[in-house]
Amino acid sequence: MLFLQLLANGLQVGAIYALTAAGFSLIFGSTKIFHFAHGATFAIAAYLFHFALAGLGMHWTFAVLLAAVSAVVFGILLDRLMYAPIQRHEGSFFTVFVASFGIGIVVQNLLGSVFGRGFMSVATPLSNSVEVIPGIYLSPLNGLAIVSAIICFAALHLFLTRTFVGKGMRALSENPELVRTFGLSPRRLSTYAFALGSLLVVPGAIFTAAGTGINPAVGHHVMLISLAATIVGGIGSLRGAACAGLLIGVAENLAMWKLGTQWSEAITFAILFFFIIFKPSGFFGRQTVS
Amino acid sequence: MTAYILNLLVLISVYAILSTTLNFIIGYAGIFSLAHAVFFGIGGYTAALVAMHVSPEFFVAIPIAMAAAAGTSLLLALPALRVRGEYFVAASLGLQVLAVTLFSEWKSFTGGIGGVIGIPSVELFGYPVYKPWQFLIISLICLAIIIVIIRTLVHTSFGRSLKAIRDSESAALASGKNITVIKTLSVVLSSSLAAVAGALYAFYMSFINVESFMLDTSVLVMAMVIIGGTATILGPLLGAGLLMLLPSALTYLWFLPQTEIGSIQQIVYGLAMVLLMIFRPGGIVSSHPGGGK
């Protein structure tokens, strides 16, 4: 029974990880920017959603809208004000990573100072767990998280394969020079990638705020997980990131079955470490060693 | 007041050892590690256990601590040899997270969350060392020796090979450099020297627990190297001094809420990292003015 319960929790957490990792992978794949501050976007969306719903007493649709808008704006601002100037003069991996990491630290501490450092969670009518079959407790939120992840992935797939901008973004990841020759602006496509990638954290942020709860370090945690998922799945592969996110969510929860809660993060990173040493290209990745 | 300043100076020299040794792999070898606190920790725990169960002699505890860290560092060298850039950062993060879990769970070695208490004072040729100023002198001597070792190494053919690998691995390989050996040696050296800082820290505090060896510490040391300036001798020292003085300096700003000092300190160095990367990627003491690595 405990196994099934943990599996169900794992699927929900995995769905959230999959979406966040897909956002990171989309940005990294098409712009080659190692966007470590992606976790900060997640934390901002989650805190603003919580604040709008619990603090201001807004209707949930407005709270969702606020979270989505703030995530997208934050992503675009970082791209324009931080990554663009860095890439203009040099833009080595190292420089971009350090700047992005710095923003992550700033956001985490600002959120902690403004909203407090404790765990916060907002109760919604959907958060209450009911006993579905004896011993298994599920809340409507569990199902909703999984359904919305599936919808987001379907929409993302259609966008990337059917629309002009989507095709441009995929082209950007293959060959930026050709994109320029074709008359598209890599700069503008990069902004689109940031907007879309940041938008993908919103469902995860909302379900986390309404479910297990958030603290200022949540962005950091989520970032580590999406980084792990992106690499395990293969850099540049959205499908890989999604599968790996799901795998990590389930593994993390099943780890509690035999070991303690404190081992869940260690399990994720043991998987990551294993992949980096033995199969750095991940599930579906292109060969990128050295 | 003297005690306060002495304490600060000892901690600065311990962190200066950490930032100098991390700079050796970040700045010269181009290996970007977020796991430096792991070796700091291994050094600390090993030295504490040796002092408690074997001998509190400085020249016994330090070599054993260094050997333990050197052995573990092979785990870090393994991914460093196979992958570059973003993969290695992720691998070192993985090692750091795993190590924190082990540090807090492996109770017989680390005492768990509670840590190791009652570490005896260290002895130098049989004379116990426990006064802060004695510690300050020992840590400064260790720091000086480590700086000399690294400075000398950087100017030998080994150092030139390292820089060649950092700038272009395939070119170094083509000119006949044994990349495997060079990279492994640099990781092992950097980690074992970081263990010296761990041992000094354990003896000085006479109590250690996992809180000193978490990801935050790795990030702090990384910030010291980057803000001070990578691939320079002076940069990491300056970075360590600045970031260790920052909390005390902030307490003098009366208008800041005292409970938020920790956060404000992190915000300041986070912002410093962002601004430096945009305007001066080489750090304050830049080896390539106006840009470069």
TrEMBL record, chain A:
Name assigned to this protein: Branched-chain amino acid ABC transporter permease
Domain of life: Bacteria
MF terms in GO: transmembrane transporter activity
GO-annotated cellular components: plasma membrane
Family named by the database record: Belongs to the binding-protein-dependent transport system permease family. LivHM subfamily.
Bilayer topology term: Multi-pass membrane protein
Localisation: Cell inner membrane
PANTHER family: ABC TRANSPORTER PERMEASE PROTEIN (PTHR11795:SF452), BRANCHED-CHAIN AMINO ACID TRANSPORT SYSTEM PERMEASE PROTEIN LIVH (PTHR11795)
Membrane-spanning residues: 6-29, 36-54, 60-81, 93-116, 136-160, 189-210, 222-251, 263-284
CDD domains xrefs: TM_PBP1_LivH_like
An annotated GO BP: amino acid transport
Record has Cell membrane as a keyword: yes
UniProtKB/TrEMBL annotation, chain B:
Subcellular location: Cell inner membrane
Any Gene Ontology CC annotation: plasma membrane
Main location: membrane
Keywords: Cell membrane, Membrane, Transmembrane, Transmembrane helix
Pfam families tied to this protein: BPD_transp_2
GO MF, one annotated term: branched-chain amino acid transmembrane transporter activity
Membrane topology classification: Multi-pass membrane protein
UniProt key word Metal-binding: no
Chain segments annotated as transmembrane: 6-26, 33-52, 58-78, 85-103, 133-154, 185-207, 219-246, 267-285
Signal peptide from the UniProt entry: none
Protein name, entry field: Branched-chain amino acid ABC transporter permease
